[in-house]
From TrEMBL:
Identification of the protein by name: WDTC1 protein
Lineage of source species: Eukaryota, Metazoa, Ecdysozoa, Arthropoda, Hexapoda
PROSITE patterns for this protein: WD_REPEATS_2, WD_REPEATS_REGION
Gene Ontology CC, one term: cytoplasm
Gene name, Swiss-Prot/TrEMBL: Wdtc1
UniProt keyword terms in alphabetical order: Repeat, WD repeat
Organism: Pseudoatta argentina
Length: 670
């Protein structure tokens, strides 16, 4: 029999020979050769396509990849031949506002396009007639996204900033009247009058599943088979487009009038630390997309990081703290949560987790760990985290690696790092329940996440389990800090308030959310609300996303490490659309051009658009995300601010938990 080519790294010639012998493996070979490490390392600018006179807000490949559509602030839609670098068609859309989304209708021979714009209009264009054959004005605010799915040639969906997500069937006449039943989801009914729709995506393998993003941290996925389409809500008597929000208060936060969305039809996702996030920076979902196999959901969070969710984890525990946190001693007992985190690290659910702990690392992993520890000692925390990521991808059941990465996360303290450290502490304790520093760091993380009551319980459990460390200076200092925070009423679970009305269903959906599977850091997404993130490669081997610094980032999907950063725009990169079958990437942003990126020949040419220091670029973006407008202006003028270091009151000694700890339990890795 033929060997399994999916599990072996063949040379290209071997793969081509295999394709000649066994025709059935052609698709698998195309997947393996679509985007490879070598091709990514040679990716560079191939061509700039000039034709628009404004920001290019959206890009879309047709199904075969022979045509690229673009739309812009100039209100034109251009179809390009990406291989001849020529315009095939310039379509004057008829829109009176910036175009934010354009899609080919499936199975239409690329002759039907759908566009949505800031004029609150959706237009369906017949390219053979070069005119609009359908115009919808049901939305009362800007339309940010259009969605289609390859297997359904007659349906499309829209997301509008009026909080409405509409479904259209081009086989039937559409009348923009209040009695028209085209509303799939009305977020205003569930989250209040300020709800805004930002993005929408349909699962390519299970087209009944639709995911939507709004101007909050929750990702919502619905089974549309269970939803009864509802009527367009009454228009508000006063409407002000300048305020950026929907001011209609009809049934705001009171739920659907006819129970159109059953309780069991929705599943919510959220990065755990965003559930009770404090601070003034708003969180908005700017883009989401399903993986090619339909099992994962990639989300670009405005004001935060990029997250990958497993949509099939509905039976696993949803929260790492809050109501699911029963007691500090439940770390080993919370089986559902345990299984969730072990699944994220490719550990079989069955069996004893402790038996799976790898105490003696393979030589190559031990060397990576040594380099990571050196980076930690030199306070190069991002470098250390990247190396621990690589080590964990090679050895996903070694407690020491998770414990060390947690320490590095706590020191770096980027957005979401403390919560990521808490997750790593949990995983460490699953594999090694006697790990002293993981217990202590768990309490520290909860305290830093403004949960002193839970931190107090964990710290008491720590002192009972390890009484020899109860008098440690770091332990005493943390105990005092926790007591002070509790006395001052700083526990976020006790002080959190909901200022907007939420429907009963919305409260239940938010209670049963699924946490993220992976996190990708380094870009900045605060300035525009159309910034995309996409899978690159048929197997989703890489993640790509634009940034406010004019660059776009490429991450390795398995390690979550940044592998390339390229300069894609003079100001901001918003759109990145990979070619469906080639290693070709189309990008656009504030510049009125589209840029095509493909692998360069191996001739020693210097790529002047490549950012060499990846850690510096990522650190600068972290500062940018947390800067006030004046600091941001200075950064754009070329000023640089020092990277803030997360301060702890305790210093660590070597992580040998069988030795006395005289200083702290928190910092130095193993």
């Amino acid at each position: 029999m033929f060997p399994n080519i999916q599990k072996k790294d063949y040379r290209v010639l071997d793969l081509i020979r295999q394709r000649e012998i066994q025709d059935s493996v052609t698709h698998i070979i195309l997947q393996k050769l679509h985007v490879t490490e070598n091709l990514i390392s040679r990716l560079g600018l191939e061509k700039e396509l000039n034709g628009h006179s404004g920001c290019v807000n959206c890009l879309e490949w047709n199904e075969t990849g022979q045509v690229l559509a673009s739309a812009s602030d100039d209100k034109d839609i251009i179809l390009w031949d990406p291989f001849r670098y020529e315009k095939k068609l310039v379509l004057h859309s008829g829109h009176r506002g910036n175009i934010f989304s354009v899609k080919f209708m499936p199975k239409s021979n690329d002759s039907v396009l759908v566009s949505g714009a800031a004029d609150c209009r959706i237009r369906v264009h017949d390219l053979t007639l070069s005119e609009s054959i359908f115009t919808c004005k049901c939305h009362k605010q800007r339309i940010k996204r259009i969605a289609t799915v390859p297997s359904i040639p007659f349906l499309f969906w829209s997301a509008g900033e009026d909080g409405l997500f509409l479904q259209y069937d081009i086989r039937t006449p559409h009348v923009c009247k209040s009695n028209d039943h085209s509303v799939l989801v009305n977020l205003v009914y569930h989250t209040g009058c300020y709800a805004e729709g930002k993005c929408i995506a349909v699962n390519p393998r299970k087209p009944e599943l639709i995911a939507i993003g709004a101007n909050d941290a929750y990702i919502r996925m619905y089974d549309r088979r269970m939803i009864k389409l509802s009527q367009i809500p009454p228009s508000p008597s006063i409407h002000d487009n300048s305020n950026g929000g929907n001011i209609s208060t009809y049934r705001a936060g009171k739920g659907d009038p006819d129970d159109n969305i059953p309780l069991g039809s929705a599943q919510y996702f959220i990065a755990g630390h965003l559930r009770s996030r404090d601070g003034t920076r708003s969180i908005t979902t700017t883009y989401l997309t399903f993986s090619d196999d339909g099992n994962e959901l990639l989300v670009n969070m405005g004001g935060e990081q990029i997250y990958l969710f497993d949509i099939n984890d509905s039976n696993s525990s949803k929260k790492i703290f809050g109501s699911s946190w029963r007691s500090p001693g439940s770390i080993e007992q919370d089986q559902r949560l345990d299984e969730y985190y072990m699944k994220q690290n490719d550990v079989d659910k069955t069996g004893d987790f402790v038996d799976k702990n790898v105490k003696i690392l393979p030589p190559h992993v031990e060397e990576i760990k040594r380099l990571a520890n050196e980076g930690f000692e030199q306070q190069k925390y991002s470098l250390a985290i990247n190396l621990y990521n690589k080590a964990i991808s090679n050895c996903p059941t070694a407690a020491v690696l998770f414990a060390n990465r947690a320490a590095a996360y706590m020191k770096r303290a980027w957005d979401g790092d403390i919560y990521a450290a808490l997750r790593d502490c949990k995983t460490t304790l699953l594999l090694d329940p006697e790990h002293v520093k993981a217990h202590f760091r768990l309490a520290r993380c909860l305290f830093d996440l403004n949960r002193p009551i839970e931190a107090d319980k964990v710290l008491k459990s720590f002192k009972q389990k390890f009484p020899e460390y109860a008098s440690n200076s770091a332990c005493r200092a943390l105990k005092m800090d926790i007591k002070e925070a509790i006395d001052a009423g700083k526990d976020i679970t006790q002080t959190r308030q909901t200022f907007l009305p939420l429907s009963e269903y919305e409260q239940e959906w938010r209670h049963n959310t699924i946490d993220y599977k992976m996190r990708f850091c380094g870009h900045c997404n605060t300035t525009t609300d159309i910034k995309e993130a996409n899978f690159f490669g048929n197997n989703g081997q890489y993640i790509v996303a634009g940034s406010d610094d004019g660059s776009f980032f490429i991450w390795d999907r398995n390690t979550t490490n940044i592998v390339r950063v390229l300069r894609g725009d003079e100001r901001i990169v918003n759109c990145l659309q990979p070619h469906p079958s080639m290693c070709l990437l189309a990008t656009s942003g504030i510049d009125p051009v589209i840029r095509l990126w493909s692998p360069w020949p191996e001739d020693g040419s210097v790529n002047e658009r490549e950012i060499q220091n990846l850690d510096d670029a990522a650190s600068a973006n972290q500062i940018r995300m947390n800067s006030d407008p004046f600091e941001l202006m200075l950064m754009n003028m070329g000023y640089r601010f020092p990277v803030p270091q997360h301060e702890f009151s305790d210093e660590d000694s070597e992580d040998q938990h069988d030795q006395p700890i005289t200083q702290a339990l928190n910092c130095r890795p193993s």
